[in-house]
Amino acid sequence: MNKRAILIAGPTASGKTALALQLAKEINGAIINADAMQVYRDLRILTARPTPEEEKSAPHFLFGHVDASENYSVGRWINDLSAVLHQLKETAQTPILVGGTGLYFKSALLGISEIPQVPEAIRHEIRRQAAGKDAQKLHAELTVLDPLTAEKLKPSDPQRILRALEVFIATGKPLVSFQGPRATSVLEGLNCAAFFLCPDRDWLRKRIDHRFDEMIGEGALDEVRALEARRLDPSLPCMRAHGVPHLIAYLNAKSSLTESIELGKGDTRRYTKRQFTFARHQLPQFSWLAPETAFGAISARL
């Protein structure tokens, strides 16, 4: 039974995919996605998922396995991760978790609060009623029903507000009442080596801009055009992936392509700041490494 796991976190465009592939080839690893956007099959290019050629070069799990119409959650990811880890127990492959979603890594290491599952009918009805409402109005509605949870949520965060509404309607209890004791870590029993890639900030900003231009050239706009044609709920996570709302605005003649691209780049740059902040405060187990020296540093510790 394999008793080791490697965790590679880091900001968008920091080189995590290339590093994971290099390690997988070196140590017979299996790469497991820990990025909340790369789970969606509809946006391979715009979310910078591994290419088909990269996926063939090493085992890959939990990439592009969810439809854009689904509201995938950290709880579902933990369940899917558990199934993959169980599968890998029968092999000699080392799990390599890689991605930019800090909450996924924190939940994998520490466990998650056991919140009751919301029936799909309730979830659908709440989101139907929420269609067209802005986040502040939804927050006001949550404040009436569940003031304890509303107090802890930003009025500009529609996804978490909707989640809180769903839990309250389904259970009659505040979401915060379930956020106490955590379930056992899905990584329990594994010797985890955890790393956070920390590139130079100026280099990262330039890399984000360059990569966004590359993605446009590789067909990201066609991906967004196909996604927009499905007329999905704009509050769904996939519909809020970096660049998607702005490129949809361009497709609907509400902005120029240049403006939409610049706004997408700006969203991505701001997101990386939040990734650094989350890692600094929420992932103390992670060793910070420069991308250019990470492979050697990680290899030396294994």
> Counting H and I runs of at least 4 residues, what is the number of helices?
13
Q: In terms of structural class, how would the helical and strand content be classed?
A: alpha/beta
Mean pLDDT: 93
Order of helices and strands, N to C? Answer: EHEHEHEHHHHHEHHHHEH
> Which term fits the overall shape?
globular
What is the beta-strand fraction?
A: 5-15%
**Count of folded domains:** 2
Produce a short descriptive summary.
This protein is α/β, with parallel strands linked by helices.
Overview of this protein structure:
The chain folds into two domains: 228 residues, Rossmann fold (3-Layer(aba) Sandwich); 59 residues, Histone, subunit A, CATH 1.10.20.140. Helices cover 51% and strands 10% of the residues. It contains 13 helices and six strands. A six-stranded parallel beta sheet has the order 3-2-4-1-5-6, with helices on both faces. The longest helix is centred in the C-terminal third of the chain and has 26 residues. It is globular. The model has no long low-confidence stretch (mean pLDDT 93).
